[in-house]
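## retry 2 of 3
previous attempt timed out at serialization; input unchanged, resubmitting
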Amino acid sequence: MKYRLIFFILSNFSIVSCLLHAQNINQDKYKLAESYERNGDYKSALRLIKDLYQTNLKNADYFNALVRNEKNLNQYSELLTIVEDRQKLVQNMQQYSLLGELYWRTGKIKEANENWEAALNLYSKTEDVYKYVAEAQIQVHQLEKAIQTYKKGENKLNNEFLFSANLSKLFIATGNYIEGSQEILDYLSKSHDLPLAEGQIYALMSDSKSKEFLKNLLKKRTEDEDGNLILQMLYAWYLRTSGQFTDALDVYKRIDRISNAEGRELLQFADVSRSDGQYEIALQAYSLIIDMGKKSRFLASAMLGFARTAELRALNGEKPDKAEAQKIIGKYRQAIKEFPNDAIAADAMLSIANIQINYLNDEVAAKAELETVLKLFTNLPLIAEALNQLASIQIKADNLDEAAATLAKIINKRYKTTNPKEYEKAEFTLAKIEYYRSNLDSARAIFEKVARNYSSSVASEALDKYILLEQNKSLIKALVAYSQAEYLEARFKADSAFHLYESAARYCEGEPLSERIKIQICEFLIRIKDIEKAKLNLLDFLKNYPESIYTDKALLLLGNSYYSTNEKSEATQKYNEILNRFPRSIYLQEVRDKIRKIKANT
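## retry succeeded, writing output
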């Protein structure tokens, strides 16, 4: 008896061990098949999966893998036979849906419809059946059938919004903007997913007819549901996207009122409009907030936004005249008056100084403005910007020692962490001061340090200067003349700068540095608006240095010069020469843009 028990235990243990071993083999084989499938080797994957499926016909994982790989290989007839056989063992909504798909793919339309109908009738109270059947219909590009399937599901389950998200995608795919827009709005009212609704509405904006329909629909819905904030926001987005900015502003006024935003929504609209270059409507929106006075928490931002937008509007056309510049300054002064002890006042003063320097050429007034900022606002990070502006004025006035002392205030204080951009700018300007003083070794060391900070906004300029000084350190006389020429140009001493540039080029004739300086002379002439002289110099350069590393740049400058004097045919010729001769030029995109612009205006 005892021995029989032992034998029974050992026998069962052996059977279990064999089963576990077989199970492990199947798992390894399945993982290998998945690996083949991921790598696109569907034939190898299918060979393994078929073996596994034959050993366990009811295993859903094996069956689904078999379906995927047969589909990947477009073996629909073979797969249909397998699925028909499986139907005798397993019947569910997925099985009917798949059979319908495969019958359709193999041209058996009647059988396809029968299986889809069978699934919908047998499982009519189950939400998933409508998804399975519709997805199968989408797979065979029967989008209208899928739409009807989802609609039937909403009716059967008594939920009119149940499949709104799915239906809206199908209406978009079929270009049905009338029903599609209704589904989008219905789903929006349920989900409040505004970004999704915006993307879907945008997809329906295919032509003027659909855009007009959408506008009228959204307008009516927002009028009927005046308090529906999410709907108002969608309509405002639509109007702004379709370029109807005045109407959009009216809706944003309504949104601001509904949400008790005290100007916040108007400010966002104004800021976005300014970023998009829509200056007039931005100014109107800022004005509405300013009219609220201190009832709005966003008054200061609106006042600064208005002034900056007015400045950008003037710049977008051409350099503002003195009257326009003074008008903009007046807006900044208004902000300072309202918020005299706030960072807003300091920001406004910096903007005023910038206008005085760049548009009014009044550096005395700008210096006084900056000194006021430094006196009144000692602990703000933007003090670093004021110090950098002051240093630039001192450099132009040939006060390099004063400029260096001003910049040292940035370097020696906490601005490396509180205002890193201005800190890096200060380091770079200190290097330029050493360069202007012809202290070339000191300048090279600082330029190298600044260039190592790759994320810095001045890193590329610093690297350029470092390479210039490092590669040409034996050409001392040329570098000294070159640095002095750049210093004179920075101080607007055009005639003196030009002669020193020419001298610097002569001192290193035959060296690559000479070619660089000659190109810079051409750029300098363009900057001072001596276009005809620039053209002559560029033509001379191209004749004498046809294989220079600066040839593509010379062609670009020459093309730009021709364009500026309305010689568009000559400009196009030079731009095309860059495209043909220099397929890897860094100027290719700029050149293509300019050619397109010329063609558009021809």
